[in-house]
Design a protein that fits this description.
Blueprint (H helix, E strand, L loop, with lengths): L1 H5 L3 H137 L2 H17 L1
């Protein structure tokens, strides 16, 4: 350090200071402005990028909220449709049951009517057969009883006896 102080020269110092000042002036004139402009431009670009990112974030949140709202609406609509479908299914089942019961009841009534009709027809047929059989038996009995004179007189006497009692 002593050597520096001893070898100090004002001329050299003056020229070095002058060159430094010229260099600073040249840098200020030609380099400082472009550097500052590029730094300012970069700063603006970063601010714009941050604002864009913030706007994109807000937009994304809005889209997510809209998506969630749409999803909730779709779920509600789906639930309503499912409920309506269930109600429709239950109504159709109940209607089918009622129709089946009514049809079954009609079939039972028709069967009862058919059975009653068949029963009446069978009873009429039976009465007809019983009456023809009874007539046939009575005819045979009367023929046999009336074929002989003695039995005819007994029959007449018996009938007369019945008449007297009444």
């Amino acid at each position: 350090m002593d050597k520096l102080i001893n070898d100090f020269s004002f001329g050299l110092f003056f020229w070095q200071a002058l060159i430094l000042l010229v260099l600073i002036l040249l840098l200020v004139k030609f380099a400082w402005k472009p550097i500052m402009e590029s730094i300012t431009a970069r700063e603006e670009g970063i601010k714009n990028a941050l604002l864009s990112a913030e706007n994109a974030k807000r937009e994304m949140e809005n889209l997510q909220a809209d998506n969630q709202r749409i999803l909730n609406e779709a779920r509600a609509e789906r639930d309503a449709m499912l409920k309506e479908a269930r109600e429709m299914k239950e109504k159709m089942i109940a209607d089918s049951k009622n129709e089946a019961q009514e049809a079954g009841q009609k079939m039972i009534e028709q069967a009862k009517a058919a059975i009653e009709s068949e029963k009446n027809a069978a009873m009429a047929e039976l009465k007809s057969q019983v009456s023809s059989l009874s007539l046939s038996i009575a005819e045979k009995l009367l023929k046999e009883e009336l074929s002989n004179k003695e039995s005819q007189t007994k029959l007449v006497e018996k009938m007369l006896g019945d008449v007297k009692l009444n």
